[in-house]
Write a structure and sequence with these properties.
By secondary structure, this protein is an alpha/beta fold. It is 37% helix and 10% strand. It is built from 22 helices and 15 strands. The protein is globular, with a radius of gyration of 26 Å. The N terminus is likely disordered. Bound molecules: alpha-D-glucopyranuronic acid (GCU). Alpha-D-glucopyranuronic acid (GCU) binds next to loops.
Amino acid sequence: MRALHRWIAIAAIVLVGTSAQAEDGYDLWMRYRTGQTVAADAIETRGDTPSLRVAAAELRRGLVGPGPIVLAIATDRDVAALHLPLSALGDEGYLIRSVKLGDRAVTLVTANTDRGILYGAFALLRHLQTGGSLDRIALTSTPRIKLRVLNHWDNLDGVVERGYAGVSLWDWWTLPDFRDPRYTDYARANASIGINGTVLNNVNAKADSLTAPYIAKAAALADVFRPYGIKVYLSARFSAPIELGGLKTADPLDPQVAAWWKAKTDEIYRAIPDFGGFLVKANSEGQPGPRDYHRSHADGANMLAAAVRPHGGIVMWRAFVYAETDPEDRAKQAYTEFKPLDGKFADNVIVQVKNGAIDFQPREPFHPLFGAMPKTPLMIEFQITKEYLGFATHLAYLGPMFAETLSADTMAKGVGSTVAKVIDGSLDRHRLTGIAGVANIGRDRDWSGSTFNQANWYAFGRMAWDPTLKADTVAREWAAMTFSPAVVEPVVGMMMGSREAVVDYMTPLGLGHLMATGHHYGPGPWVADLARPEWNPVYYHRADKTGIGFDRTATGSNAVAQYAPGVARNFANPATTPERDLLWFHHVPWTQRMASGRTLWPEMVHHYDAGIAYVANMRREWDALRPSIDDERWTKTATYLAVQDREAHWWRDASIAYWMSINGLALPAGAAAPAHDLAWYKAQRFPHAPGNPQ
Ligand code: GCU
């Protein structure tokens, strides 16, 4: 009996020991499994601020070989004596270098601010985890974009709109009393990739988030995030003066309305002295806004901007607007509404523009507003959560998608006027610059619903810091830290083509918005009966007996004319439109000859097949990695890849069955017939699919 007890005790210790090491994804890319520790006194901090303290703690948690490592601000006497090139670092950049400090050889992490040092500490950890050494280290970096912000579409009841990773991380109910340690880990993760702002609540905002109890809750989060250099912002419901203030109007030019917002803003700043400001979705998809009072978006934004200005706050005003009452091509509506307002916004307003003109599709050409509003700071908004790219279960690395838009040439000021240069302010000399990502974070143990989704959070942060970073460079860093340097090449190989595979099996050759209604899960290209025309997939693909695609040239909606002439010319001509965007801009005969020599119809089928073949290949690659990856993360990913495989076939088969019902063409030789008839695909229902707006 005693022997048995002892055995149980030993087994328990072993089990606890293992579970402490369990790889459930919680540690993200900050696993620090180097097996090395550093003596506590090997890290020296000069000065004492909360940010310096967390920077040193992070290094102690992660390190790694011998010290001494010195964290010291640029004004430190010994650092100043080194005459390092620190002025260009601004207030967030860092410099890491092997130096002699006094008479000691040390690794110096320095910056003009403690936040810069914190970023330097994380950069040092990244360097060491990806195979770098401390030997003659020389790293320096400064972010190119000022506001690097996550947008949480989190409702106050915990449901995350378009969220596929569990309920909201914010437990509004137990805040402000309980500060879940996860809030700190969230802040660490963001700081490690340079994210410096977070909008806590959904753009489809409830006025309640501006009431005193919720301000106190937001303030508790702001306290946790502050040492990590992260500012809190709130989505503001434009009609809050009516709902909370009892006013009869929310007209931005009404003095009482402006006074209400000013008082409300002052109240927020009393609780959160470094509050970042407001994000606003106005007059879009049923949200209230200045247009309700025949005022412009600039009138609305400027009124709020005046309220936050005395506190140094800003307003991020979204350009995602379209109206069912407007018969104009939906892709044109944001430009039509915002372009005339260029130069009319206050200087603490930044207009937030989605990467493409419709809505976060697997592929969209860059939004025509980029380059078209030189007098207005524009920030870009990407979706990190995969509303239209297979939810959490499909492996789709978005780095290539971010890079594709950021490197797109608007030609607004000649060749080389990339979207990145528009948003980093260099093209039009703006000081207020920003980038936003709709978060894919929830209370799932692995934060993002799958290990590979973490890569999209990571890539967003890294590319927000430096929008010229290459997607594969970022993927390599992530894979080395998330798994191990040994599996980097095969993992990156899987990741790099994964988003294109989704494009291929869902919306090839420039198609878009073909997803099922509401939840957007699965195919629905046949949907034609919804009240608003632009909610129907048939509005977007326009397939008929002779061809498919949306004519956005002069013979159609002429959306191409919204681009700068050099770009417009290319998009206006099918021969100079990249094939990947062809059906976005042109209605093309099924018999059109493509670059491959195939005609359009077999070319489409070829893309569907390429998409499913890529997924099959990822499964094979992942199987081969089994011995090199821990069981828990390997198994979940393998299971999700099987789901993706099944759903990729579903997308392909449903799409092909539908197109054949329209074009009456036979399957190309050698192509597999859909597994079911069209009626079967049309009959699929998913009333409880996650992420649906409430
Ligand atoms: C998409 C998404 C909505 C969201 C909207 C927005 O349309 O489906 O859930 O509210 O974008 O960005 O405002």
